[in-house]
Specification:
Length: 443
Amino acid sequence: MNEPIAYHGAIFYFKETATIANLPINKDKLSDQDTQYVYIEDGVLVVDAGKIKFAGNFSELKNKFPGIKVVDYKNKIITPGFIDTHQHATQSAIVAAYGDKLLEWLDNYVFPSESSYSDKASATKDLTFFLDQLVSNGTTTAVSYGPLFYEASDIFFEELKKRNMRFITGNIIMDENSPANLQLTTQVNYDNCQKLIAKWHNKNRLSYCISPRFALACSGAMLEMCGALKKEHPDCYIQTHLDENLNEIAAVKKLYPKLKNYFDVYDHYGLATDRTIFGHCIHTTDAELEAFKKTGAIISWCPLSNNFLGSGLFNFARALKYTDKITLGTDWGAGNCLSMFAVLDDAYKVSMLNSVKLPSMVRWYMATYGAARALQLHDKIGTFKPGKEADFVVIDPNATPYLKYRREKVSDIFELLFILMTLGSEENIKATYIYGECAYLGD
Ligand code: GUN
Ligand code: ZN
């Protein structure tokens, strides 16, 4: 069993020192000093007992690991798995719902569908299917909203444990502006959270995430309860939605006229921390971003969702003035694809609409090592430093006839990443490995 295995292919990963600020923007700026990534065309990755043992030149393998078993991924790229920082594990049934913006979309599609998670058999089927889809898209870690009900959330954690995934999730919490059957009292939610934290937080590769849906679906008492939970369990994560839609923002303002702004509502209840992931932040003002910066919180930019729901255009350049903790999410449900390639493609297009040319390296970083850093998981995942957990994907850049044709015109890693992000899909994921085990193998 636990013999080391070598994977032979092109190797691409970021150096530990990489940040958005020091990444080369384009090939003209490349020099030995500012190269913050490793790309070895004839490379090898050696994995032993779930951990990275070595990443380097294939020519070194014979000497370093004589007689080692070699898996051939020649002409493919071996790279750390994608990290999706915002998704709803419960929304597979309503992707591609016609015609509504956020608040109506929640009422007409999301809430009725999420009710089905009170049934354990249907919850198991949906969640298993969802995770199969996620892994076949090359995503190995995610920050995910789990089901509202305790039993279904427990099933989700159980399924994640089986797959040995590094994952951040929790039961979604709400008690207002939603159907009565989806409103659990503050006490019931508190008890459910405590049980799930005791059973799953920091167990295997799992972290618990306190998950108030958003200020409109939670009473002040519920947000206060979430703040109290965070105080009791300071290393738990928090996730919620912020400044996604103009009608949502106006409604929050009405509910909390005395607080400074939407961000201030979460801050007021102790929910803005350096382990909080705020989904969207499209309409966030400079005053909000100034306060945001002080808390060290994390942005999850979800361009697929923002385009689908017509929510607005995230302004990367403006946000970057305040924080470099900008990560990417599918927001599956509203986002219509689980592939981070699609998210990366829309991130580029949205930025172009804001006249910002978002570099390939910066985008790829945000979907991998940058997310690991923002989530404080960079000692565990995100690069191929020996000792880190072996979550990686094998990408076939020739997966379709057109890509094969287009690749012949590509001269460097920048262009290669760019065409993958623009033209790539699930079809390009040849294999996904989780903690050194093959979790998905394509044709
Ligand atoms: N805001 C509150 N709930 C949701 C949700 O499920 N999806 C999105 N996109 N925004 C939300
Ligand atoms: Zn969301």
